[in-house]
Specification:
The chain folds into two domains: 4-31 and 280-407, Lyase, Ornithine Decarboxylase, Chain A, domain 1, CATH 2.40.37.10; 34-276, TIM Barrel, CATH 3.20.20. The chain has 417 residues and is an alpha/beta fold. It contains twelve helices and 21 strands. Helix 2 runs parallel beside helix 9, helix 5 crosses helix 6 (127-140) and helix 8 runs parallel beside helix 9. Helices cover 28% and strands 25% of the residues. A hairpin with a 4-residue loop joins strand 14 (283-294) and strand 15. The strands form three sheets. Strands 4, 14, 15, 16, 17, 18, 19, 20 and 21 form a nine-stranded mixed sheet that branches. Strands 5-6-7-8-9-11-12-13 form an eight-stranded parallel barrel, surrounded by four helices. Strands 1-2-3 form a three-stranded antiparallel sheet. The chain has helices at residues 18-25, 34-47, 65-73, 83-91, 108-117, 127-140, 178-187, 208-226, 252-263, 276-279, 312-316, 404-407; strands at residues 4-7, 10-13, 16-17, 29-33, 53-58, 77-80, 99-101, 121-124, 144-151, 173-174, 191-197, 233-235, 269-272, 283-294, 299-303, 322-324, 334-339, 348-355, 362-365, 386-391, 394-399. The protein binds ligand LLP. Residues 58, 61, 79, 102, 162, 199, 202-203, 237-240, 273-277, 312, 316, 371 line the site of ligand LLP.
């Protein structure tokens, strides 16, 4: 059951009315439900009960310290893609030895820091990265735990911008070359082969491609075993989709049940890197109608959130649900385009939405907990939104609204002539 429900004619986050959050913290504002995050994480963790496993939350989906802290307290692992994300995990109380480091452009500095704090594993994405990691680990006199991110060449059947497991994508090591590169890894003295991993894309609403990728990874693991290379863990990445509109993705329990069947009897620890499926439906973006601009052709509602706050509709033509916080029946229902004040035609959060609106009304953009705030920018010199975590009937400001002064605090004028 969603933690965002209508009660007494008003949308609530857990037991807090969204209008009271808007009154206290202003808009636009991201609102997260602690209980929703916990339940989504536990759905993964509990579905893996009885098999050795680690659920590593993909920090890129939502890197707010409050969110990471909620997950760290449950014992979650974390999937990071930068030194910045590593520092966030540590600052949020996450354990370094539960961190896997993905991403195809790790710098020597990032590798060094990750080795010093003792992360669980590097997901290596190229032969060149392997050599670099060997060099950095040798300089520090340690062994780097590695897994190769393999590109299994399966079509995730999702939006091309978030599909990553095809041969033509930049990610991972071609599965045809994987054995040779594992052999090389095994020969390098400062690398310790721990696992194999893949991640084929995001917002998958059918798990068939994920299970196809799993089959291919198991074949690879058997080939490696024949060469005397023992892989201890298999990391299947993230990618499980969520419902934005009327998609019907498998639940984590259904997907993981099928994974468990395929790996039964194998001596493998299972790792996953879910992002969206843990936080997307645990958050909304709260925004206020600033002005109404009905025209002959279109009705525009200009809201105070914009593409800089939530870029998914502009970037991927993503459909996000948008609901009135307090639905009203005293004005006519019309078809509205919900647009922000940014000077771009692509600045919309929703088009053709049937809503009864008046100036000053509050709206909630649904499923905004993943790839929402983290992808926001300061375009048009707009300070970034506040973020609030709801815990039953209490609210915590987990990121205060940025100020205009902060926007150019690091900039300077030229010296006097
Ligand atoms: N692991 C790796 C290596 C990834 O690249 C990603 C996502 C994940 C895990 C988490 O995937 P998830 O469970 O969230 O699907 N900004 C886009 C999504 C980009 C996903 C990038 N990689 C969006 O808003 O739809």
């Amino acid at each position: 059951m969603s933690e965002f429900q209508y009660r007494n004619g008003e949308l609530h986050a857990e037991n807090v009315a969204l209008s009271s959050i808007a009154a206290q913290y202003g808009t636009p504002c991201y609102v997260y439900s602690r209980r929703a995050i916990e339940q989504a994480y536990l759905a993964w963790d509990q579905a893996l009960d009885g098999v050795p496993h680690l659920v590593c939350f993909a920090v890129k989906a939502n890197s707010n310290l409050g969110v990471l802290n909620v997950l760290a307290r449950l014992g979650a692992g974390f999937d990071i893609v930068s030194g910045g994300e590593l520092e966030r995990v540590l600052a949020a109380g996450g354990r370094a030895d539960r961190v896997v480091f993905s991403g195809l452009g790790k710098t020597e500095e990032e590798m060094r820091r990750a080795l010093q704090v003792g992360i669980k594993c590097f997901n290596v994405e190229s032969a060149a990265e392997l050599e670099r990691l060997q060099k950095v680990a040798a300089e520090l006199g340690v062994k780097a735990p590695v897994s190769l991110r393999v590109n299994p060449d399966v079509d995730a059947m999702t939006h091309p911008y978030i599909s990553t497991g095809l041969k033509e994508n930049k990610f991972g090591i071609d599965i045809a070359q994987a054995v040779a590169i594992y052999r090389r890894a095994a020969s390098l003295p400062n690398l310790d082969i721990q696992g194999a991993d893949c991640h084929i894309g995001s917002q998958l609403t059918d798990d068939t491609p994920l299970l196809d990728a799993l089959d291919r990874m198991l074949v690879l693991i058997d080939q490696l075993a024949e060469e005397g290379i023992q892989v201890r863990h298999l990391d299947l990445g993230g990618g499980l989709g969520v419902t934005y509109q009327n998609e019907t993705p498998p639940t984590p329990g259904e997907y993981l049940g099928r994974v468990r069947e395929k790996v039964a009897g194998r001596d493998l620890t299972l790792l996953f890197e879910p992002g969206r499926s843990i936080v997307a439906n645990a958050g909304v973006l709260l925004t206020r109608v600033n002005l109404l601009k009905p025209t002959e052709h279109k009705n525009f509602a200009i809201i105070d959130a914009a593409m800089n706050d939530l870029i998914r509709p502009a970037l991927y033509s993503a459909w996000m649900g948008i609901d009135a916080v307090r639905p009203r029946d005293d004005v006519p229902t019309l078809n509205w385009d919900l647009v922000g004040p940014v000077c771009e035609t692509g600045d919309f959060l929703g088009k053709d939405r049937e809503l009864a609106l008046a100036e000053g009304d509050l709206l909630a953009v649904r499923s905004a907990g993943a790839y929402g705030f983290v992808m926001s920018s300061n375009y048009n010199s707009r300070p970034r939104a506040a973020e609030v975590m709801v815990e039953d009937s209490v609210t915590h400001l987990v990121r205060r609204r940025e100020t205009v002064a902060e926007l150019f605090a690091g900039e300077s004028l030229l010296p006097e002539a």
